[in-house]
Write a structure and sequence with these properties.
Layout: E1 6-7, E2 9-13, E3 60-67, E4 82-87, E5 90-93, E6 98-99, E7 107-111, H1 121-124, E8 126-129, E9 137-142, E10 157-164, E11 167-175, E12 183-184, E13 187-200, E14 206-218, E15 224-225, E16 232-238, E17 241-242, E18 249-253, E19 263-266, E20 271-272, E21 276-285, E22 288-291, E23 295-298, E24 319-320, E25 327-329, H2 374-379, H3 388-397, E26 399-405, E27 408-414, E28 420-424, E29 437-446, E30 450-457, E31 460-464, E32 482-483
Parallel strand pairs: 2-10, 11-21
Antiparallel strand pairs: 1-6, 3-4, 3-7, 4-5, 7-9, 8-13, 9-10, 11-16, 12-15, 13-14, 13-18, 17-20, 18-19, 21-22, 21-23, 24-25, 25-32, 26-27, 27-28, 29-30, 30-31
InterPro entries: Mfa-like_1, Mfa-like_1_N
Protein name: Fimbrillin family protein
Pfam families: Mfa_like_1
């Protein structure tokens, strides 16, 4: 067979705090019966600004890409950790990457570039460290709707859609109206946050194994509070996760050598999530601080000056027609591929931030499509939680086969029309037995028994409740939305 290989084209939408790194040029010879000169295109790339300091992006910076074989966890020849040089709005691969004939190739990316990422394991466990205050980014080849897409020899052009791996915490500090004191705080400190973790890029940016604690310091440009009309603003990048039990503190000091010289207060417990901004209002009263609950918004990029990094941070899946009464999403909420576990949500919480849900009266028997529906709130449009009857329809009218995609275990659910979806065994936060079981939220609630859930394991799958009407209101579930 004649071996005709296509060149890989790359268009990018990137952003965040980018710093200069070193890419070693690789003089690699690739044999092909026909080679097409490599062309690199950029998509809507503008000058950006640093998130924390507000300074202009360096003209030279780098990020890395991995080009894969379809849904397999294998890199194509020449596609391992390729350095991309970014210069004045133009992205250039430091070597040619040729696509194999008639093979679907997803492309995954990360920032900042690290030449030591020599195997695919770094896509599963990329180190992140909060002490550097780096805006770690991860991305994938996407279409105009930011859905994961593939390139191939007949369609070699890819656009990389980046997301923030970190969460952004903003402290807006002001004086109470009856406080006449003048304050000077050149150091704003966030204490006892997670120091380091690993980022699973192939699983939609899941944070793994947070360890250690760190104290972060910001130096606001205006640190003098003379009256109640002005304020100090300090920004921090933090590793996503629930702060419960971590005793995160805000400290304002005039001496970086001692946190005891300033004012301190506990930061309310928050479930920080990647790509979101958490703004706390801090009021200095006479002798003490008062820190509000966070206002949670999407991490907007208009303050950064341009380069797009996926403000919503929710990649919307494809609606798969299984010949049933509803269409099923091709992946979980919070994921960006069918095998991604996604995020975990509390039943009845449309914000995705709560650790438990509380109702003044008895919970409704079905929240699907209502104001309590997380799928409706986050994915919008016609997306919603599946009901009990829709889960039963999926169970009874489709063929379920336990399988493994790459390293991810779960069920391939195949309809009579030949279409299928993959449901990964994503476990639950309190169980953390990934690959062995999964618990999927429905919109249905059984009084006295709890949330109706899809339960999967290698030896079976069923629709059931926990038998505890309160457990479902405090236990995180994965979500697979549906639409009419």
């Amino acid at each position: 067979m004649k071996n005709i290989q296509a060149i890989f084209y790359l268009a990018t939408m990137i952003g965040g705090v980018l710093s200069v790194a070193s890419c070693n040029n690789e003089n690699e010879t690739i044999t092909a019966s026909k080679q097409v000169p490599l062309e690199i295109q950029t998509g809507s790339v503008q000058t950006t600004r640093s998130i924390i300091e507000g300074s202009t992006l360096p003209e030279e910076c780098q990020y890395g890409i991995f080009a894969m074989y379809g849904k397999e966890r294998e890199v194509i020849d020449g596609g391992m950790n390729v350095c991309v040089n970014y210069s004045k709005g133009v992205s250039t691969l430091n070597k040619s990457v040729y696509l194999p004939t008639n093979v679907d190739v997803p492309v995954y990316a990360y920032y900042p570039y690290n030449a030591n990422y020599s195997n695919i394991e770094y896509l599963l466990e990329m180190p992140v460290d909060v002490t550097t205050q780096t805006d770690y980014l991860y991305g994938y080849s996407a279409d105009n709707d930011f859905k994961l897409t593939y390139v191939k020899d007949t369609q070699p052009k890819a656009t990389i859609y980046f997301k923030h791996a970190m969460a952004r915490v903003t402290m807006r500090i002001k004086k109470a109206t009856d406080n006449e004191n003048t304050y000077k705080f050149p150091y704003i400190n966030l204490l006892n946050v997670d120091k380091s973790a690993y980022l699973n890029i192939l699983d939609g940016g899941t944070i793994l194994d947070p360890t250690g604690t760190a104290n972060l310091t910001a130096k606001p440009s205006d640190y003098v509070l003379e009256n109640s009309d002005n304020e100090i603003v300090a920004d921090f990048l933090v590793i996503p996760g629930n702060t419960e039990g971590k005793k995160v503190l805000l400290n304002m000091s005039d001496d970086i050598s001692s946190f005891e010289n300033g004012l301190s207060a506990a930061v309310p417990v928050t479930n920080w999530q990647a790509g979101q901004q958490y703004t706390y209002t801090v009021t200095i009263k006479k002798g003490n601080l008062e820190v509000s609950q966070a206002e949670i918004t999407q991490w907007k990029n208009n303050e950064q000056g341009g380069l797009n990094v996926g403000d919503g941070n929710y990649a919307i899946a494809e609606a798969i027609d299984l010949g049933l009464s509803v269409k099923w999403a091709s992946w979980n909420m919070g994921a960006s591929s069918p095998e991604g576990y996604g995020d975990y949500y509390i039943w009845g919480d449309p914000t995705g931030e709560m650790t438990s849900a509380k109702f003044t009266n008895n919970p409704p028997s079905n929240i699907s499509g209502t104001k309590y529906d997380i799928a409706k709130a986050k994915w919008q449009g016609q997306w919603r939680l599946p009901t009990r009857s829709e889960f039963l329809e999926l169970i009874n009218k489709c063929t379920w086969s336990w399988t493994t995609i790459g390293t991810i275990k779960g069920y391939q659910v195949t309809a009579e029309n030949g279409n299928s979806i993959f449901i990964p065994a994503a476990s639950q936060p309190s169980v953390s037995i990934f690959g062995e079981s999964g618990y999927y939220m429905s919109g249905s609630y059984e009084p006295g028994y709890g949330v109706m859930e899809l339960w999967i394991r290698e030896d079976g799958h069923s629709l059931a409740t926990d038998g505890d009407e309160n457990k479902g209101l405090s236990e995180g579930y994965t979500v697979r939305p549906v639409m009419e």
